[in-house]
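Forgive a beginner's question, but would it be possible to get a protein, spelled out as residues, together with the matching structure tokens, please?
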Amino acid sequence: MITVSPQIGEFLIKVTQLPDIEAALKRVLTEYLDLKISDLKGKIKGYELKWKMTFKEFEGACKNKTLKTDVYSYEVEKDFWEWEGLESVLKYYEDAKSRWI
């Protein structure tokens, strides 16, 4: 059972063009997950292009100290933590979507 205010219910029905609040809410949440996943994949792609490898390869190269780079270690470390965070959040949203659908 879903309880929402009449204003929110009306808005959901209007923007989704669905006759049912539950279906409208499901569509909004599914589209939100799709947008989040797409955004995260785009950001991850930026790191893959920058470093010319996947995160797993980057992680291994950092761990084994085989990363060939002219940049300061601060940038490498910063990119590592940001990239790792993006990968973790992406996994979270993909898992949430798989449980949702």
Remarks:
- The two ends are 18 Å apart (CA to CA).
- The chain has a mean pLDDT of 93.
- Helices lie at 6-16, 21-51, 55-63, 73-100.
